[in-house]
Amino acid sequence: MGRLRNCIETRLSHGRAEEKGLANQISVRLYIPMTYDEVFKALADPTRRAIFEKLAVHGRNAKQLREGLGVSQPAVSQHLAALRSAGLVRERKEGRFVHYEVDPDGIGFLGAWLQKYRAYWPARMDDLNALLKDMDQ
Amino acid sequence: MTKANETIVQEYEVDAPPDKLWRAVSITEYREQWLPSGDLDGAEPLSLDEGRSVRYAMQEPEPPFRRSEVTFEIEPIGAGRSLFRITHRLTAGIEMRAANSNTRPGIRMAA
């Protein structure tokens, strides 16, 4: 009942596992590029996660980022480097400062989205099937 | 600049006839029970083809507030069963640059 028939995903051409995957009644977790490991590792650190969430609200430079975090400048730089290499954050020169922002084209940003919603829909389907049963009564 | 063409398509066989499935998907009180409005960007559909398909805007309630669109399609497959297709497309890359103002605070990312 409500079992998954097909799962098709189109990937960005600059992503690694590009092309489409078509799986018949197979688990949804087939196409997980290696970079997700890096994404999860990058976001597992609470400080790094805090930095990412700050940047998700709006971009900032390193000095603005440090405010309220209580983290040293070198530590912030390290965290930003990790977020960049995970494809979550990008930097842009703005006058004397470097401006950091979430990279909406980054493999981390996209990969994390895919990862989240591949698991999200089967869970919604469980609830939908439960509702359909209730509607019978 | 951005392609934002990341798309998830999942198809399910559902043990309910199309008209019943349609009610569960399109009537807000029912839809709320399996797809919370908090996960949507507005409870009203973006478009709707009566009995067949409906499209909603979605937005993550927490950072990075990625925006997307989901389309639900229903097809009869006989024996009182239906095919339910979910097509979920990330649109965030485009939306963020558009920086529209008719949205919840906090979602405008890069200025």
TrEMBL record, chain A:
* A single GO molecular function term of this UniProt record: DNA binding
Example of a GO biological process term: response to arsenic-containing substance
* UniProt-listed Pfam families: HTH_5
Question: Which segments constitute the HTH arsR-type domain?
Answer: 28-122
Q: InterPro entries from the entry?
A: ArsR-like_HTH, HTH_ArsR_DNA-bd_dom, HTH_MetalResp_TranReg, WH-like_DNA-bd_sf, WH_DNA-bd_sf
Q: Establish whether keyword Aminoacyl-tRNA synthetase is in the entry.
A: no
Q: Which NCBIfam families match?
A: HTH_metalloreg (NF033788)
* Listed name of the protein: Transcriptional regulator, ArsR family
Its lineage reads: Bacteria, Pseudomonadati, Pseudomonadota, Alphaproteobacteria, Hyphomicrobiales
Automatic annotation (TrEMBL), chain B:
Say which domain of life the source belongs to.
Bacteria
| InterPro entries, per the entry | START-like_dom_sf (IPR023393)
SUPFAM superfamilies, sorted? Bet v1-like
Q: What is this protein called?
A: Polyketide cyclase / dehydrase and lipid transport
Q: Which organism is it from?
A: Fulvimarina manganoxydans
